[in-house]
Amino acid sequence: MHIMEGFLPHPWWEIWFAASLPFVAYGVSRISRMAREQRETLPLLAVAGAFIFVLSSLKLPSVTGSCSHPTGTGIGAILFGPWITSVLSTIVLLYQALFLAHGGLSTLGANVFSMGIAGPVVGYLIYRATQRFNLYFAVFLAAALADLATYLVTSLQLALAFPAADGGVLLSLKAFAAVFAITQVPLAGIEGVISALMFKYILQA
Amino acid sequence: MSEILGLRDVCYIYGDGHAALRNVTLSIESGSKVALVGPNGAGKSTLLLMLNGTLRPSSGTVLFKGEPMRYDSRSLRDIRKSVGVVFQNSDDQLFAPTVEQDIAFGPLNLGYPREKIERYVGYALSYVGLDEHRNRPPHHLSGGEKKRVAIAGILVMEPEVLVLDEPTSNLDPATSEEIMEMLDELNLYGKTVVISTHDVELAYRWADEVVLMDGGNVVRTGTPERVFADPDVVRKARLKLPAVLEIYREMLGRGILVPVDEMPRNIVDLMHLIESAAGRSGRKPGRIYICDISATPPSRIRDILSSGAVRYIGAMGTKAKMIASEELLELDFSYGVVDKCVLKAIAGKSSLIITSGGMVEHAERRIRSYAEEFGIEIEVIILPRAHVSTLADNR
Amino acid sequence: MSEILGLRDVCYIYGDGHAALRNVTLSIESGSKVALVGPNGAGKSTLLLMLNGTLRPSSGTVLFKGEPMRYDSRSLRDIRKSVGVVFQNSDDQLFAPTVEQDIAFGPLNLGYPREKIERYVGYALSYVGLDEHRNRPPHHLSGGEKKRVAIAGILVMEPEVLVLDEPTSNLDPATSEEIMEMLDELNLYGKTVVISTHDVELAYRWADEVVLMDGGNVVRTGTPERVFADPDVVRKARLKLPAVLEIYREMLGRGILVPVDEMPRNIVDLMHLIESAAGRSGRKPGRIYICDISATPPSRIRDILSSGAVRYIGAMGTKAKMIASEELLELDFSYGVVDKCVLKAIAGKSSLIITSGGMVEHAERRIRSYAEEFGIEIEVIILPRAHVSTLADNR
Amino acid sequence: MHRLLDDHAHDNGLRDVSPKLKLAIGAFSIMACIASPTPAVPLAVSACLSAAVILLARIPWRLYIGIIAIPLSFALLSASVVALLSPGEEIMSLGALSLSREGLWLGMLLVSRTIGGTSSLFFIALTTPMTEIFSILRSMGLPETLVELSMLIYRYIFVLLEEAMLVHSAQEMRMGYTSIRGSISSFAMLASVLFIRAWERGERLMVAMDSRCYSGRMPVGDDHSVRPAHLVVSAIYILSITAFLLAVIRSGLA
To answer: Which region is the signal sequence (chain D) (predicted)?
Structure first.
């Protein structure tokens, strides 16, 4: 779920850039180190990034009928871990803004934080915690909860920028979360199911 | 024959304003074999995607059985069941984790009952000769096998029209011929087959009707002889003349041959023209045996072979080839079998064609028509019919 | 000629235990045109990837200029600079965002200075005729254009050997011929060219040396005539005979022709055999004008055309074709030009070939060798040389 | 979506303008929109840049209207939440919710900023091909790895997207996506086959790069030089918007 260009006021758009920067910078340094050691790193991460972009540009079959797209970052976190996924997500989010008009440039920091960092970190931790029980269930849970985490963080980002008159950030968070829940909660479920099925099909093939 | 698919004044303009089709009018007869030929970018693939409603004309109408095509989801479902499209690159078409699941994809989505799906998938698998690969992932198959799976995935929905974009691209000659023969077989059993290709040899030999396209226009349509009659038109469309035709034209130009009404379609025709021009004849032609494999035990074929009555052996159709390979029969011809046997017969050598079912009559008819055309007598012996008693005794 | 690349007893076994190459021994002469032919899965691509060290033999040795190949990164870099590989699917090869950046990839990584990179890239771009596409992303190009960019990206490193996997797959006949002609031109200027293909017509016509592969083995190597001499071997490798050869064999079988030492390589040869068998001769052959476009103003070509001295006009080489299209000359032949002009000359018609630089002598040599072979006199007139004074006057 | 905005950028009428200049205009416009306390400045930015995109870059207006509607739905939904939560003098009551004058104003401001910001974003996206931005990214001192990875991802997006479209239409031809169940399994098959294909491509990409002597460098394109006329027009635009912005801020303070 992208925050559109122009929507986040000063100082919030700067704050989210600052919050994302350390994660992405560390991710880039990890990739640089890996690329020096293993030459296949760059080509494989390149196709993985392109894969995440293409997946997230396809319209999901959705119950609500709205124009909803998978984030694909939960899968990324499972495969590459959260650091590298944060770098791939940054590039993918930039392209989504420039090629598809999803998100924006000033809001890139906020979007990277919700979709490229918070979601993948949650997904990765869930996957590591539940992996030993059942692989497919772990993938389902990781992808679905990564989606939910993204949506909650986005709601929080908006709530912090636009606190309610009485009740402040908390009330505002409730309001945003409630409005976006209509599309985002079913979406998270669908992305979870699709991710689990995708793993199953890949392992079968 | 009646029109099964038609285009009337169809234009198609891509998002960037580039016109892929310009006022195309075309009629495809039910039961025919149609080849769209033209250079890369001529609009062939775009036209094919019109035939099952994947692309919708910017202007003009597409007709299916005389009715203008409609693009609501119900109508599209019906049209896509009736007109199956096989893509050029099989990898784009095979997306399920195993061969079996891939073939079952269509029937499953059509809501067929489980038992029916299994039966149909089994039938389609054995039709394309890939039973033993049913549980393999498609991306581990060879190019030819992938193409067969792609065709099976369409056949299983029992379409009336089979549309194939460049069916032989990236396949070696023998695999190409096997695929084309499979299409012949399907056509013989009533399906209309439409292909696109820039292989002029293939189009010239295989098609009933050739549609020559260039720059989004249909430049010429008609029998292969008619379409390829004008070398300038063919060259402008960045194609070349079929070799047989080019040699024929060179011989005309040198006065070695004189023009005839019907241009040669293949080497058999060309040889006949040359021989009659040279005033030759008199050699006693060889025989052609046709053996219906579904009614003949393989031992009988071995008997014929060991008797020395035939010099060459060929197999037509998927089933015959499977049996030949099981029985370790060394085939001389596995594609273009009738033509080759007729050539051998004219050269005085006898041969045996093994095939099955309706293909027997088809082969016989083609031999007879060659014989008539050339004014020679080729003796055709159809095996289980003539020897049915011997056969019973042998058991 | 000396060996530039060699394989000695090379085996290659994939991770799954499947042997892709079995004891392959092969020698590629410097400056030759080699075609690897064989069915899908014969091991052609595996062999090609041995030639620049991408794959390392499981056993046996690969030699480059007589030295066993070494696989440390420094040696690999040297070998890859000398042996350039163009992949079958151009999309696998073009990975930079624009045409220009893609072509610059090799030189940049070889550490050329900036100015040299720019010069080389500019040269390669204009050589393949894609100057105006330099800033396009590869996904906006046609299949033929992508192939040209892929070739340019290799040429720019000035390799001694050019290796191309199925260079004409998915290209229409005219585009294929243009690519093959470009390879001829490069060969003429000294590069060794190795291709893989299952297009037998192409291999038979184009190659100096054919390597027939099947099931990981080299079945036969030699001149095209020698490799395609045995129809059984060719058929077993799931290939077919080239049409000219098949027609020749049919004519032999019918006694229309008698066996000759050298089998016909193309239609010109075949026609000559037929004509001499029919005891014909006597027609006065046409002339062939060869015009070096780099030394002739286009107005001179128009003069010749309007004088009625020639009936047909053809262009050889990238530069000649570009000028022809700029000058709106309507070309009769844009590929296989020499052959076609010789055919026309034998049929008594004159023609004009426009070309440039070293290609002039090449064309002349080929015409002379045809003339000698057929024992006829074809008058070849080379334009700027013969008319150099006239030319000066015209200015 | 068969064509990405980048595809239009390669053929637009402002292709020859220096990409640095275009980026500067876009970035300035975005900042101006966010900084503006009233809807007037973002709407002025939007009017100027939309005119530039349609009239100068010659992007079809139908396409432009179509894509600008995408972010609007998000903006309207979020802005109405903000509007309803904001404190102030109540002007309308909707059951438990109430809309204040200040809330309405803030909502309108947010929608206008989104419109202005999106116009600025589209100005960049539709006039400056990504291929020309890479060299700017590199000269901005972004890490080499990040720029190289971006370049490779750029190229493979188009390769994989085409493949995804083909697989998707092959599935549609065989009645995928006709029911919810079928849709979900079709989509998962598409994703899995795309992943496998992507991985194989990655391996082939490695071979291709190695075959061309890869030693860790990716070429970038050249920059266009800035032409004086372009500079003058840009300066007029930037100065006018800045003046407008300052005037609005001062009058707001007064």
So the answer is: none
CA C351/CA C134 separation, integer angstroms: 36
D95 occurs within a structural domain: yes
Under a CB-based contact definition with an 8 Å cutoff, are residues B32 and B203 in contact? no
What value of ipTM does the predicted structure carry?
0.83
Q: How confident is the model at residue B390 (pLDDT cuts 50, 70, 90)?
A: very low
CB D25 within 8 A of CB D139: no
The answer to whether residue A204 neighbours chain B at the CB level (below 8 Å) is yes
Q: Read off the amino acid at residue B390.
A: T
Domain residues for D95? 2-129+223-253
How many Å lie between the alpha carbon of D35 and the closest alpha carbon of chain A?
8
Domain-located, residue D218:
no
Residues D18 and D92 in one domain: yes
Q: Please list every residue in chain A whose beta carbon sits closer than 8 Å to the beta carbon of residue D85.
A: 162-165, 171-172, 175
pLDDT confidence of residue B325: 81
B166–C169 C-beta distance less than 8 A: no
Query: What is the token pair recorded at A150?
Result: 């993204």
Q: Is the peptide bond before B68 cis (omega within 30 degrees of 0)?
A: no
Q: Do residues B231 and B240 lie in contact, with contact meaning Cβ atoms separated by under 8 Å?
A: no
The strand pair at B312-315 and B288-292 is best described as: unpaired
Residues 110-139 of B with CB under 8 A from A: 137-139
B215 and chain C: CB distance < 8 Å anywhere?
no
The CATH architecture of the domain made up of B288-391 is 3-Layer(aba) Sandwich (3.40)
Please give the distance of CA C259 from its chain centroid, rounded to a whole number: 29
Structure tokens of C83? 């042996």
> How many helices and strands (H and E) does chain A possess?
7, 0
**Residue A201 touches chain B, beta carbons under 8 Å:** yes
What is the residue extent of each domain of chain C?
3-236, 243-277, 288-391
Q: Is residue D27 part of a domain?
A: yes
The answer to whether A204 contacts B98, with C-beta atoms less than 8 Å apart, is yes
At A67, list the tokens.
């124009």
pLDDT tens string for chain C (395 positions)? 699 999 999 999 988 888 999 999 999 999 999 999 999 889 999 999 999 999 999 999 999 999 999 999 899 999 999 999 999 999 989 999 999 999 999 999 999 999 999 999 999 999 998 989 998 999 889 999 999 999 999 999 999 999 999 999 889 998 998 999 999 999 988 999 999 998 999 999 999 999 999 999 999 999 999 999 888 899 899 999 999 999 998 888 877 888 887 888 888 888 888 877 766 544 577 889 888 888 888 788 888 887 777 888 898 888 888 888 888 788 888 777 888 888 778 777 889 998 887 788 888 888 888 777 766 778 888 877 554 333 333 33
Contacts of D42 in chain A (CB under 8 A): 6
Phi, psi of B297 (to 5 degrees): -70, 145
- Residue C241 contacts B where some CB pair is shorter than 8 Å: no
Considering the domain architecture, whether residues D50 and D107 belong to the same structural domain is answered as yes
Inter-chain residue contact B200 with C173, CB threshold 8 Å? yes
Fold designation for C3-236:
Rossmann fold (3.40.50)
